Amino acid sequence: MTIEEAPPLHRPGLTPPVLSPATLPQHVAVVMDGNGRWANARGLPRTEGHRVGEANLLDVVAGAVEIGVSELSAYAFSTENWRRSPGEVRFIMGFARKVLRAQRDILHSWNVKVRWVGRTPRLWKSVLRELREAERLTAHNTGLVLNLCINYGGRAEIADATRAIAEDVSAGRLKAGSINEKTIQRYLYSPTMRDVDLFIRTGDEQRTSNFLMWSSSYAELYFSPLPWPDFNRTELWRACEAYAGRERRYGGAVDKVLHEEPGGTGDPQDDEQ
Is 81 annotated as catalytic? Predict the structure, then answer.
């Protein structure tokens, strides 16, 4: 796909809703589910769903840029996806390699910074090369950060971080008593990743599927019945609007009911007068 063939950054007639910085999710995570079912419902092989779904990611990225999201994480291939048929895995890996090569110039022209988040073992070397090249090309961009989560698993990330911490404690580089949440954050695949504000899953499934478990601990969940190939930038904006209407308390609570004594003012100083 060339820059001329890519979906435009701005589509005529489509304007994102205006949300204040306080109500706009800064980090959106997306589980792009439903590609295979979308294809099978149309009498097509599952691989065709992946083909359309990968191309659709560009439109959602454009929508994130337009509305002002700072970071977008896309669950492209999980550590559990290796269990799929060898043919489907080969297609996904090969297609991911082609897509990365074709889309990195487009993302670069949109001022998007690409980051790979995941494990090295089992990942095709050719795919890893394309990921590293995309990271290198876009390293100095200052716009949206796009985390491409390929060969990623939430439990694997925490296990790898724990292993690295244990090794550093054993080597005397880290004191066990000093380990806290900030320490663990430094050992994750992407230490600078923001906490996820809005977690979207498409495909009419309602689970998080081992995605960004640490970073999504307080994320607002949004489940769309649409399969990923039908989830476009306007659907992303709809999810952002839903997020804007929610109240995030992070474990705290505000009692909105004032309990007053009959005839009292509700002012604690009344008891002292």
Answer: yes
